[in-house]
Amino acid sequence: MLDTKTLLYNTRSRKVEEFVPNEEGRVSMYTCGPTVYHFAHIGNLRSYIMEDVLEKHLRFVGYDVKRVMNITDVGHLSSDGDTGEDKMLAGAKREHKSVMDIAEFYTDAFRADCEKLCIKWPDVVEPATNCIPEFIHMIEVLLEKGYAYVAGDNVYFDTSKLDQYYVLSAQNEEDLQVGVREDVEEDTNKRNKTDFVLWFTKSKFDNQELKWDSPWGIGYPGWHIECSCISMKHLGEYMDIHCGGVDNIFPHHTNEIAQSESYTGHKWCNYWFHVNHLNTKNGKMSKSKGEFLTVSLLEEKGYDPMVYRLFCLLSHYRKPLEFSWEGLDNVVAVYDKLIKRIANLTEEGSVDEAAVSEFEKKFAEAMGNDINTSSAITVLYDMLKADISDMTKRKLVTRFDEVLSLQLTRAWEKEEKCADMELTAYVEKMIEERKAAKREKNFARADEIREELAAKGIILKDTREGTLWSMK
Predict the structure, then answer these.
(1) Which distant-in-sequence residues (6+ apart) come within 8 Å of 250 by Cβ?
(2) Disulfide: which of 132, 201, 338, 424 matches 217 by Cβ 3.0-4.6 Å?
(3) Residue 263: pLDDT above 70?
C-alpha cells in the first residue's frame, strides 16, 4: 500500500471524507449499469470513465478491489408512477426484435464502447434477468418486516416506516406533490406519495414481454430492486462504495437505501460517489433530445476515443461539463502534443527508483484529493519536465497510465511491435540461408550462421517440422 490517504466526497454526508473500507486492504464497489435498449451516449459514458478512474486509483495505491455492475434488461420505466414507456420494449419495437435480442446486442455495444475508452470491464457483470429469485426474496422479507404492502395487486415500499427517507438529497415531501414535478403522476394505490413499486402485476404495460411468476401473481420487478439485490449477491450486506450519475441520487439511490437498509437492519453502503452531467449548450445530454452523441459518431468524425477520455479527465467529476466540438478540438491538440512528447523518451539511462517513489506519491496524493484527475495530469507534466532520466520517466508514464488509461505508451508499443517484425524477418531470412548452405553441403557457413544468431541471443533448434527459434 502506498502511504497516502484517499479523500472522497460522500453524497450521503455531503462532505469530503477520508476513505476507510470495511475490510482492511479490500474494497467492495458497485456501479449502476446501463439499461441496454440503445447505444450509450457520451454523457452516460462520462460516469463510467470517472468510476473507472476511481477503481484504478484504489488499485494503484494498493487496494484489492471487487467491482460489480448490473445490466438492466427487464425494462425501465420513466417513473415509479408506472408512467412513460418501458425502454426495453420500446427498443424491441423500434428494431423489430425480441427484448432479449435487444439486450444482448446493446450489452455487446456498451462493452465495445468501454473497450474503446479503456474502461475496465467490472469483475462481475450481472443481468437483472438472472436474479428474479433474489428480487422476490427481498420483497418477501420487506413484507414480513412491515416495510412493504400489496395494493392494486402491486407491491409497494412504505416510506412512512422510515425515520429518514431523504438521506441522499435535499428533497422534501412538497417537492413530490403531483403537478410540482413533471415526472411524478398520482398512483392511487400508494399510501404515501413517496412510496415506490417493488413488484408490478398490474401495469399500464399489458404487452410487457418479460414477466415472471411470483407470490403476488405474474409480473416483473420495479425500477430499484435490482441494484440492491445484485450488489448484495456479490458483495454482501456491507458495501464500501456505490457509484452512479447525479441523476441517480433521487429517486433511484434514495430508494435503494430505503429498501436495502430495511431489509438488512443496518447501514448498507458507506460512500456514495456521483458524477455530474455532461451538458451541451442546450442542456443535459439525452437520447430523447436529438443530441445523441456516441463513441462511434466521434470516431466517424475522426476523433480518437482517448481524446474524449482526456476531455473528461481535465475536468473534476463533481462539476457539470459542457461538451462542444471546439472544446474537443482543443483537447486533440493537447493529446497529440502529450503523446509526441512521451514518444520521444529514449531508453537511455537507468531507472531512479527514489524518483519513481517520489512521483508515484505525488500522483497518488493528487488523485486521492477527491479523484482530482486534472491535478494528477499536472503531476504527469511536472514529471516529464523533471531532471530525471528518460528511463525513469518511461517507467512513471507506464505507472500513471495504469490509472489515467490514456494509452500514453502506445508509441513505444508500436515501436516494439515494428522491432519484433523486423527481428522475425531477419531471423527467418538467416534460417533460409542456413538451409541453403546445408543443401550445398557448406556446413561451415551453416555453423557460422548459427553462431552469428547465438551471439544476438537467438537460439536455433532443428526439429522434424523444421528449424525453430527462440530468444535467450
Answers:
(1) 166, 168, 169, 171
(2) 201
(3) yes
∠ Cα 398 403 409 (to 5°): 30
Average pLDDT over residues 230-249: 97
Residue 237 has, within 13 A of its CA and on its CB side, a CA count of 10
DSSP 121: P
Beta bridge partners of 124: 68
Element (H, E) at 459: strand 458-463
Q: Let me know: does 338 contact 345? Beta carbons within 8 Å.
A: no
- Percent over 70 (pLDDT), the chain: 89
pLDDT over 90 percentage in the chain: 69
Q: Answer yes or no: are the C-beta atoms of 86 and 208 closer than 8 Å.
A: yes
Cell numbers placing 59:
488499485
DSSP secondary structure of 359-382:
HHHHHHHHHHBTS-HHHHHHHHHH
- Alpha helices, DSSP H only, in 304-409? 305-313, 325-343, 353-368, 373-385, 390-404
**Residue 184 has what pLDDT?**
43
Quote the pLDDT of residue 1. Answer: 87
